[in-house]
Amino acid sequence: MEWSDYIVQAAQHSKNSAGHWFRYLRKDIDKCGTLFSEREIEALYHNEALTPFQRVSLKAAFEDGSPTRQHIINLNRKVDLDKIAKLRAKYESIDA
Fold this sequence. Notes:
Number of helices: 6
Helix content: 55-70%
Oligomer: single chain
Order of helices and strands: HHHHHH
Number of domains: 1
C-alpha cells in the first residue's frame, strides 16, 4: 500500500473525528519526518475523498513551524504535571 493510499483510507476512517485524523497524521509525521514529496501532498490536497477540513489540515501538517503541525506532534506526549500545578495555582490566585 502506498502512503497516499493509506492517507485516503485514514481520511475515510476518521471522517467524523478530527482527533482521529490528527493521530493518523502524527503517525506519518513521526515515521521519518515527512514521507511525502510536495507533489504527493498537492495530489492528496486535491483528492475528493478528503473533506475540506482534512485537506487544509493535511497541508498545514506538513509545513514546518505551522501551529497545526506543532499540535499534531505534541499529541500524546507526557504532560509535565509540575507546570500544570503552577499554572493552576497562578490562575486560582487571580480568581480569588
